[in-house]
Write a structure and sequence with these properties.
- The chain is mainly alpha-helical and 55 residues long.
- It has one domain (9-54).
- It contains three helices and no strands.
- Helix 1 (2-27) packs antiparallel against helix 3.
Length: 55
């Protein structure tokens, strides 16, 4: 039972990281993203990767 609770907490944390990362990157303009080496189309991918690393 504790394993299920820990898994749920982990998933919720990863989702929060995903949402926060996606939100922050979406607020940047294209030039700022380009300065970091990213394109707007990569935001979803980057947010998912950030959530995986935190999990």
């Amino acid at each position: 039972m504790l394993y299920l609770f820990n898994a749920l907490v982990s998933r919720l944390h990863a989702y929060a990281v995903y949402q926060r990362t996606k939100s922050e990157l979406t607020q940047l303009d294209d030039r700022s993203l380009a300065d970091m080496g990213f394109q707007r189309g990569e935001i979803e991918f980057l947010a998912r990767k950030a959530a995986e690393v935190e999990a």
